[in-house]
Amino acid sequence: MKQKTENIHDVRGRGLMFGVQLSQEKAAQGPEIQAELLKRGYITDFHRASNTFRFFPPFIITYDEIDRFNKDFEEIVS
């Protein structure tokens, strides 16, 4: 994900829990990105102090759902 767009500064996590830190330039749009993700059915947490989206997907998530989320997130952030 980080390699596909300049708008992502870092991706980190453990297990299914992960965070995506936006670049300084894109961070101001964090709340708008979060609203668009919610419209598409994704509940996320945007931490303004670190410019980071935090994701806690359910344990029963499928590979197709992960792929769809990655595609949607990259589209919205780009």
What name does the CATH topology carry? Aspartate Aminotransferase, domain 1
Q: Based on DSSP secondary structure assignment, what is the total number of beta strands?
A: 4
Order of helices and strands: EEHHEEH
How many angstroms separate the termini?
11 Å
**Proper CATH architecture:** Alpha-Beta Complex
Overall tally of structural domains: 1
Radius of gyration: 12 Å
CATH-defined superfamily = Aspartate Aminotransferase, domain 1
Mean pLDDT value: 92
Low-confidence segments, given as residue ranges, are none
Number of helices: 3
Q: What's the short story on this structure?
A:
With 78 residues, the chain is α+β, with helices and mostly antiparallel strands.
Structural topology:
Blueprint: E1 8-14, E2 17-22, H1 24-27, H2 30-39, E3 45-47, E4 52-55, H3 63-77
Antiparallel strand pairs: 1-2, 2-4, 3-4
Report what the structure shows.
This protein has 78 residues and is α+β, with helices and mostly antiparallel strands. The protein contains three helices and four strands, in the order E-E-H-H-E-E-H. It has a four-stranded antiparallel sheet with strand order 1-2-4-3. The protein starts with 7 loop residues before the first strand and ends with a helix. 12% of the residues are buried.
